[in-house]
């Protein structure tokens, strides 16, 4: 079964006139921290492991995962991680240096 997602970036002011999807990746809507957490998810890490790596609480990681799932419009963390792997995103989409 092929995973689907309903991506719609909150940064997009309006849809292109021809109905085409706006430029960018589904990950543009994620904060730097969420993108980092998604990276660890895609490597098979559990919330407790990610919390230890990031130096934060497990509940904080759970909240980030919830936001990732919501923003990407996917069913669960496995699909979110698979989406990142499928897009082969190895760089931070926030490479312009702005903090979020």
Overview of the molecule:
This protein has 4 helices and no strands. With 100 residues, the protein is mainly alpha-helical. Helix 2 packs across helix 3. The radius of gyration is 14 Å and the shape is globular. The model is unreliable at 7-22 (pLDDT under 50). 45% of the residues lie in helices and 0% in strands.
How many helical stretches? 4
* Distance separating the two termini: 35 Å
Helix fraction by DSSP (H/I, runs of at least 4) = 40-55%
Looking at the structure, what is the overall shape?
globular
Radius of gyration: 14 Å
The whole-number mean of residue pLDDT values reads 78
Q: What's the order of the H and E elements? A: HHHH
Topology of this protein?
Blueprint: H1 32-42, H2 47-54, H3 58-72, H4 77-87
Concise overview:
Helices cover about 45% and strands about 0% of the residues. The chain is mainly alpha-helical. Residues about 5-20 have low confidence and may be disordered.
Labels describing this entry:
single chain, 100 residues, mainly alpha, 4 helices, globular
């Amino acid at each position: 079964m092929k995973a689907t997602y309903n991506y719609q970036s909150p940064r997009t002011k309006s849809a292109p006139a021809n109905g085409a999807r706006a430029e960018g990746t589904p990950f543009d809507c994620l904060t730097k921290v969420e993108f980092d957490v998604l990276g660890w998810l895609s490597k098979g890490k559990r919330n407790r492991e990610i919390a230890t790596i990031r130096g934060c609480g497990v509940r904080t990681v759970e909240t980030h995962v919830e936001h990732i799932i919501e923003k990407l419009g996917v069913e669960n963390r496995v699909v979110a991680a698979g989406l990142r792997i499928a897009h082969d995103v190895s760089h931070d989409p926030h490479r312009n240096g702005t903090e979020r």
